[in-house]
Amino acid sequence: MDSDIDLYDKMLQCLQPNSSVQELRVEGYGGMRFPSLLSNLSNLVRINVVSCRRLEHIPPLDGIPSLEELSIGHMDNLEYIDSEGVGGKEVSKFFPSLKKLEIQYCRRLKGWWKKSRGEMKDDSDESTVEEELIM
Q1: What are the residue boundaries of the R13L1/DRL21-like LRR repeat region domain, all occurrences included (predicted)?
Q2: What is the strand order of the sheet 23-27 is part of?
Q3: Mean predicted confidence (pLDDT) in 25-53
């Protein structure tokens, strides 16, 4: 079983998609780590990640300014969409082009970020944190 996971991880890490790719669909991926290839695909308009049952988080996606549609589904172990948090990014720059967000059947989902924005800001009070984008 562990060798299968390693094989999945290596297989997806080897992909070298063209940077002009606009749509990415990952279905049934059995690895535990999502590859960093998303950071090189800044022209993506649609991302669909489904039935990747072992993944606990996916890499940050808010750095893809052209992303219009994000669909995540049937992710049994998904706890956080972005485990790295958003740091000092402004809410207005969070997915500036997003028109459609679909999250289905992610029963272990705890939140968007592993750390809440309130934990990342030292000088904020609770009322400000509540007004910010928190899932």
Answers
A1: 5-75
A2: 23-27, 46-50, 69-73, 100-104
A3: 85
pLDDT in tens, 35-44: 767 767 889 9
80-82: strand order across its sheet: 57-58, 80-82, 111-113
Which SS3 state, helix, strand or coil, does residue 57 take? strand
- The whole-angstrom separation of Cα 74 and Cα 71 is 10
* Three-class HEC string of 29-70: CCCCCCCHHHHHCCCCCEEEEECCCCCCEECCCCCCCCCCEE
| Euclidean distance between CA atoms 30 and 5, whole angstroms | 6
